[in-house]
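dude i think i finally got it to work??
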Amino acid sequence: MNKINFRLITSLFALAIIVTSCDTDDFLTQVNPNELSTGSFWKNNADLKMGQNAVYNAFKNTNILNIVAETNRSDLSWPGWGRPNTPNRFSIYYLHTFNESSNEINTKWEALYTLVFRANQVIENGVRLIESYSDEDAIEEATIIVAQARFLRGLAYSYLYNSYNKGSVPIIDAVPQGESDYYNPLSPASDVKDFYHADLEFAYANLPATWENDVDQGRVTTAAAAAELGRSYLYHGDYEKASEYFTDIMENPEYGRMLAEHIGDNFNEAGEHNSESILEINYAVEFKTEEAAGTTENVSANLARTFASQQNGGYRTLVPAAWLIMAYKNEKKDTSDARNYIDCDPATDPDCDATTSKKLRKYSIRASYSLAIVDEDATPYYGPYLPGQVTIFNSNEPAYWRKYTNWETKNSELDFVPVNRSAINNRLVRLADIYLMQAECLIKGGTDESGVEQAMTLINEVRRRSALELIGSAAGSKYPGSDHDGVIYNAQSLMEHLMHVERPLELSVEGHATRFLDLRRWGVTKQRFQDLSTRVYWADHYWDVEDRRTKDPKKQTRWQSVLHEGAPNDPVAPVRDFNLNNYTVYKDNVGAAANYIEEVHGYFPIPNSEITANPNL
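look at this
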């Protein structure tokens, strides 16, 4: 980090937390606030707590996750604003034409090192205070505060390691004292990995399993440290070690982790800190009045408006890739599960059962709570209406993500006054992710068929939560009464299913660059782009829609909004009096297939701001 930035951070952080006396007797002996030292602050655990709050506040910076840019690097998205063009500033990540000057590469770096710097202050002063204490309760309290800071520093370095320069980045493990301390050289990737492992191991050994007080909900726990350690070992192919941490999370009763009853509770405000959540970033509608509502350390509203459709107050900056939409649409439902049936009127709906007044929902529960699809028939969107009734789905955008948006509680993202606000927490790690990573450990690290069977059991737990058809045979299944696909899976075919169905559909746009890092570590990124670039898509019209936004009694048409794969001269659905030549036929990932080079685009380069400022690189 350059010297000017570090000094600014030092001053702003110190001035934000210092407590000065207003007593006239103390006036002549007050410490100059421009010459702060450990003697003028960091005197006790109360000071440590204030410092720790500043660390968590840095963790809220949305540039750390960089969700739009990181998603565009993967195969999950289109940059938005209408196919087949890629006109917005995030297109360089979709096309893989970014470089060290690209904005998001620089802002992510700065946000991560800000988190590191603030954590270092708490760690350094916490250790000093612990050495001075004789009271065991004070020592324990300070140790837990230090453990939180070390977790967040370790997490920051794991993100830096996985994002930049093949893992070789500067290690800053202390508060700079002189000019030379601002200019750290690059450390070998192996040293960076060892450094963040040590932080996470300390956190794992010293954090509480749970927090008793409601006010502490959202603080990091032992399970969060176990999750990140397990993920790191998985990423490095140490399946046995990774499995130990995942097993601890799944089986340790102190954590009390279990899948939430409804998948939607992982994406809304009501389900925050539920039994599935392991690590999440807290946000609230209230914000600091001295800062703009959309500032990166205030609220998550820029994500809500980024993902929402235009008619519902959004910017539609990031939309799901065509293959992903089709994969969600084609998910098979468990027809024996009552959750998959919705009310209907036999008099007006030919698909409605005359006896039960029920019909099978069009799309799976997982699909409906992950995406807003134009012809959705079961799950409303921004009010009591269906997506096609309140969104026009134009410009060949047949679906939008529901995740990160307030569709359940607002009629529009503009309903917040002032706008640019959202209280939805960002769930970084949840138990379904742990199940699927453990399944991978069993597939890749197993020595016999039992590993495949155990992995299928975990995958089916995730699928059954969303009333999906289960995989494998019903014979010997934990849920023999549920629909099963009847496929006989081996390690290779089950891994393919995990890679290109289960993980992307369960976890799309969640976590830290989850999908891109998955593709890279599996060694299939280039191949994946090339495969997807050959697939052809087109969209039919969605006819006779009652537009509830305009309240126009005339039925509306959502042009080119019902997505199909294949050529339009062999449509899946009948086309009503419309010239096929007017349909837009498009492909995704063509630019990525041509441009992506693992050695160049597998990691972000060191940002030019750091290159310019740091003479030791």
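Residues 534 and 587 are 7 Å apart (CA to CA).
im so relieved honestly
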